[in-house]
Amino acid sequence: MPENTTKKSVKLSCRNVWKVYGGRPKSYFSSRSRPIGSDTPELVKKIRADGGIPAAANVSFDVHEGEIFVIMGLSGSGKSTMVRCLSRLVEPTLGEILLDGEDLLKKNKSELIDIRRHKMGMVFQSFGLLPHLTVSENISFPLSLQGLSAKEQREKTKRVIELVGLEGREKSFPRQLSGGQQQRVGIARSLAVEPELWFLDEPFSALDPLIRRQMQDEFLRIQSTLKKSIVFITHDFLEALRIADRMMIMRDGMVVQIGTPAELIINPTDDYVAEFTSDVPLARVLLAREAMDDTVQSKAGMHCVQGTDCVEDILPSLATHRQGVAIIDGGETIGVVTPTSVVCALSRGQANDKNAEWSEKAAK
To answer: Distance (Å, rounded) from C-alpha 308 to C-alpha 311?
Structure first.
């Protein structure tokens, strides 16, 4: 489940990033910091009217240390363009992308190559394995580019093979592996360089539902150990709910809303976000720390649960501890959840859903 990121430092900061295709994209901007136009939607309309494609439009967000930040949206929303801009596989038209406070857009080619080799890991929907290399050889390939000795390559390769559960398949070729096993090799290869920042662009979407679920579980297990700063792209809201600390929903290249899964469900900014979240049970995504009762103080000996536990998981504890349970976050007691506070939190979410439904009917 998601972690509290409010006290964590920012690893990656994306500031007012634009990516415009077609024509003369830089002609729409008066400088590297300020676009011409009264607001982003108006400028997007102007670019489209001129035959251009604003694949990313004034996008800003932060990714904290150890956070899984999910970018999602429908096809064509700009989510994959953004992750490619972050790694400079695609050059942004405008904006800043700060990694540990340094603007990646100002790095020269050799500096960028060094950053990619040592600080970034990337996993895409297409596994991209080299068919003539074994599992071990595929995983060690980026390590050889780093110039590591054969011994160091073997040690790191062995470690990540164990991490992703591929022991015994070291000498297998990609054609001898299942889709899920091939994706594990891709994940292991990206982890072998011990990246500080990990980009995953719909890594599980090519897998069948059962294998996809297993890979999500494996991904969360790995993250619980490594605690990487991660940007994860998906169009599947249920997948996002399982893994996200925070989420950003995009539409037409623009940011629609950023927040925790519970925040997006309880307070969707518009009908587009509400549609994504309409079929999700609130108890499954509302966190214990988001349902605390501010009027109740914790007491010595009180039963404890983690602040990152979802409400659905703590219901049995509340059934046997009617006075409430203490919430632990970061090793400290931060409050108390009671049966009443859970009901109130869930009812607020249902009321917001109902208000959105009434607004939609009124609009029709």
So the answer is: 9
Return the pLDDT at 1: 41
**Mean pLDDT for all residues in the chain:** 86
Q: Is the predicted pLDDT of residue 333 greater than 60, yes or no?
A: yes
Q: Which CATH number fits domain 283-363: 3.40.50.2300, 3.90.420.10, 3.90.1280.20, 1.10.10.10?
A: 3.90.1280.20
Q: What is the CATH number of domain 10-119+195-277?
A: 3.40.50.300
CA–CA distances in Å: residue 44 to residues 11, 78, 81, 125, 255: 29, 13, 16, 29, 13
Q: Which pair of tokens denotes residue 224?
A: 């619980």
Question: How many whole angstroms separate alpha carbon 113 and alpha carbon 182?
Answer: 25
**What residues contact residue 225 under an 8 Å CB cut-off, 6+ apart?**
163
207 in the Ramachandran plot: left (φ > 0), alpha (ψ -120 to 50) or beta? beta
pTM for the model stands at 0.79
Question: In whole angstroms, what is the distance from residue 248 CA to residue 251 CA?
Answer: 10
pLDDT of 67-80, one tens digit each? 999 999 888 899 99
Structure tokens at 322: 């009617």
Cα–Cα–Cα angle for 215, 66, 188, nearest 5°?
A: 40
pLDDT at 286: 84
Tokens of 170: 């070291």
Section 342-352 average pLDDT: 73
Let me know how long the chain is: 364
